[in-house]
Amino acid sequence: MKAHYQKLFAYNTWANDRFAEVIGQMKVSDTEILRLFSHIANAQVIWLERLQDQYNTVGVWDEYNTEKAIEMAKESSLALETFVSQAEAFDNTVVYKNSKGHQFETGASDILTHVANHGTHHRGQIATLLRKKEITPPASDFIFFVR
């Protein structure tokens, strides 16, 4: 299971980096694109903190300028890769509170799967917004990563 998650989060970092490159080269900041990219980074930070039994240091929808959003996405992506590579078990239950203060218990493997899928979902939304601006989004399907 560890090898699966190591590959999945290497892919996540690769895909986030590809989008960060395009977003960083945009001539004009797009608030919706930055809002979604910031959200990807925030979610990665929040879920990693929950996995490590820490408190949330960022809000789910906190927004950043281009440089900060890219920096946070990069740092949180690499931190997730490190977490996965150092994890000893993926079947433990994580107890946490969501952004509304409700307590939940979720398996670590389910959280990790959610984080990876969550990023993919929002990168897809960003790709649509880039196309509307006549900017070609990066190819970021998993198959492109493994080829």
TrEMBL record:
Any one Pfam family match given in the protein's UniProt record, by short name: DinB
The keyword Coiled coil appears for this protein: no
Superkingdom: Bacteria
GO molecular function, one term: metal ion binding
Residue sites binding a divalent metal cation per the record: H39, H118, H122
UniProt KW Metal-binding keyword: yes
The entry's keywords: Metal-binding
SUPFAM superfamilies with a match to the protein in the record: DinB/YfiT-like putative metalloenzymes
Family: Belongs to the DinB family.
Entries under PANTHER family matching the protein: DAMAGE-INDUCIBLE PROTEIN DINB, SLR1116 PROTEIN
Protein's recorded name: Uncharacterized damage-inducible protein DinB (Forms a four-helix bundle)
Gene source species: Roseivirga pacifica
Lineage start: Bacteria, Pseudomonadati, Bacteroidota, Cytophagia, Cytophagales
